[in-house]
Amino acid sequence: MQNNTDESPLYLFDHSFVSKMSLTISQTGSYNPPSCFGHDIFSVLGPKRPDHRWLIIGPERSGSTFHKDPNATSAWNAVIRGAKYWIMFPPRPNDPPPPGVFVSEDQSEVTSPLSIAEWLLGFHAQARKTQGCMEGICREGEVLHVPSGWWHLVINLEESIAVTQNFVPEAHLGRVLDFLKNKPEQVSGFGKDVGSPYDLFVEKMEETYPDLLEKGIRDMERIYAGKKRKWEELVNGYEAQNEGKAGFSFGFAVQDDDVP
Known about the structure:
With 260 residues, the protein is α+β, with helices and mostly antiparallel strands. The chain is 27% helix and 22% strand. It has five helices and eleven strands, in the order βαββββββαββββααα. A hairpin with a 6-residue loop joins strand 6 and strand 7.
């Protein structure tokens, strides 16, 4: 890693490091998820759960381009060695993605510069002036929280080792249910034996946290109703503006986080 001159250095993610290293995850074990993030509701899935924890190793200049974490999950990232620069954008209604990032209409595909270096040279200054931008450096012994739906880019400022984990907190259960149910083509990480991740999650929640599931479903329905309402407002407003005009076409993306 010390003599690497690649523009996009290799960034290693190991999802099986716990078993390889015979680690135990508990308060008295090798490490324990930070208690401040609360209970991880996705744990009800047991062995059916997608990979959700990784050991991440990379040299200086390695990192991840802009993305949102899978399945509307949240994440925490704990730096064991080194330092990481983060730049993040919260999900704001009707806001476009970060400068230099383009998404397809259904938000299933993300296009950005080929390397982090290209993005930094072409869009970093603009991004720092964009409303909602948050940035900072996370150093050895520090933990960063990535809430559900946040765009984020990270680059290692020096050789770095970190542990990260995706999780579902109670506050974002409705968002995760909405994603699993209404964006099945974008759901990732589940095994081929899982026909419907949404149905599986609901089944496990009914067995373990029925009251919490009921609240989550109400939140999901509110989120979906809000998206539908915004769609109708946009369509009706456009039709009103173009009443009497012959022939038109239009296209726009409904943001994943349009509901306050």
